[in-house]
Each structure stands twice: as structure tokens, then as C-alpha cells.
Amino acid sequence: MRTIGIIGGMGPLATVDLYAKIVYAAQGKKDGDHVPVLLSGRPDIPDRAASICGTGPSALPALLEEARRLEQAGADALCLGCNTAHFYYNALAAAIGIPIFHMPRLAGTYCQHKRLHKVILLAAPGTYETGIYEKAFSGTGVEIIRPEPAVQRLTAQCIYEGIKACRRDYDAGALQAALLPLLKREQAPLLLGCTELPIAWRWYGLPGETIDPGEILAQTIVRWAQGGAGESFFPQPH
Predict the structure, then answer these.
(1) Candidates 82, 111, 158, 166; catalytic one
(2) Any catalytic annotation for residue 82?
(3) Antiparallel, parallel or unpaired: β 37-41 and 118-122
(4) Which residues, at least 6 apart from 78, have a Cβ–Cβ distance to it below 8 Å?
(5) Segment 176-230, tens digit of pLDDT
(6) φ/ψ of residue 146, rounded to 5
(7) pTM for the full model?
(8) 20 to 30 A Cα–Cα from 6, which one of 25, 65, 120, 225?
């Protein structure tokens, strides 16, 4: 099988979750049935939101270093364990000789195939700031609904103070209360546009139908690793 390289550590729990999704997606009956994975757990990659907003050091040098390291180690393709890191997709794709999966665009294709009219985007601040998902969904016919600023703020708190802080006892009650009227008003699924958020839904029992781009990515990686036509899985940089 082809080997996937994961640029991870953004954050560590989200990286473990993505790897587990790849394992489950393979539905292997023995060790050898699973996808070969080279995993870079690089938790010192600078915060992507701060990097993009100019309030912290750039994340790009560390991302480039890990991409090249994984390529040299024998990966046939790469994926990013962080949605916001896709801001640097074009720079990474131009710097290495192997393709990179684009998680937000895969999610857009999935939602288009499901004939969804709209989704509610929950994400980290940097993903909202850069419009990564709006760009990824361009041309799909699926509308991205951004929740009101209060919901965005509570989502960020859940990501940073709950999952990134490894707090199973985090009180997500305020986020749950804010989501209920949003779900009732929009009548649309929640697109979990941060790789920490699926963990939050499991840990804290948050409401609503959800779409997990990490799960979509994992399923796609398995199909590709098992011999699927490679070109159709990778978008051209733009």
C-alpha cells in the first residue's frame, strides 16, 4: 500500500484522533491490512491563528520542515492534521514533490455529493479569519453559514480551554446552550472545521448533526492508499 505522512501535533489529541480514524476506516482484519503511516507529532509548530494574524511567529517554516522530513522518509503523500494550517497549502505543495490532501476541499466535495444546501461552520479563529472553508466550498453549491460571534467565541474556548488543555471536565454548557437556537434556526448540520471539535462532541455530548472533515479525510486516504486513482484525490494549488 501507499504510505501517508501526517503533519501532526496541531494539537496532539487531534493527531491521535486522525490516526485512529485512518485505522478504523481501513477495517483491517490483521496488522498488514492497515495503511502505512509516517506521523510527525510536532507540537511546537507555532499557533496557526496567531501566525496568520501576525500576532505570533510564522508556522510556515516548521510546516515546511516537517513536509520535507516526511517526504524524505518515504511518504507517498501528505495530509495536515489541522484545518487552519491549510492556509499554507499552496506554499507547501510548491515546496515538495509529493501531493498533499486538502481536508476542507474534500469536505466540500462530500457535502456536494450529499446534496446539502448549507452547513454551519464551527472552527478555530484562524479558519474563520482566512475564509478557508468558504474558498474550499466555492463552486459546490453548498452555503457556509457562520454562527454569530458569541458562538464563535464559545467554540474557540472549547477548543483551547477544553480539548487542547486535555480537560475532560471542561464545562461546555454555555456552548451547548448557544448551539440549540442556532440549530433550530438554520436546520442544517454542523461542519466541525477544527480537528479538536469531534473530540469535544464525544467528550462533552454536544448537540446537533455533525460532519467531520477528518473522517472524510481518513476515508479518502484509505481508498487512495489501497490503490485508488491518485490524481482525483489531490487539488491543484491555487
Answers:
(1) 82
(2) yes
(3) unpaired
(4) 4, 5, 6, 7, 67, 70, 71, 92, 96, 98, 99, 100, 101
(5) 999 999 999 999 999 999 999 999 999 999 999 999 999 999 999 999 999 875 4
(6) -95, 130
(7) 0.94
(8) 120
Active site residue 79: no
C-alpha distance from residue 177 to each of 111, 144, 159, 171, 194 (Å): 26, 21, 16, 11, 20
At 192, which helix (H) or strand (E)? strand 190-192
- Report yes or no: 63 and 5 within 8 Å, Cβ to Cβ: no
Cell triple for 37:
503511516
Select which of 79, 111, 158, 194 is catalytic.
194
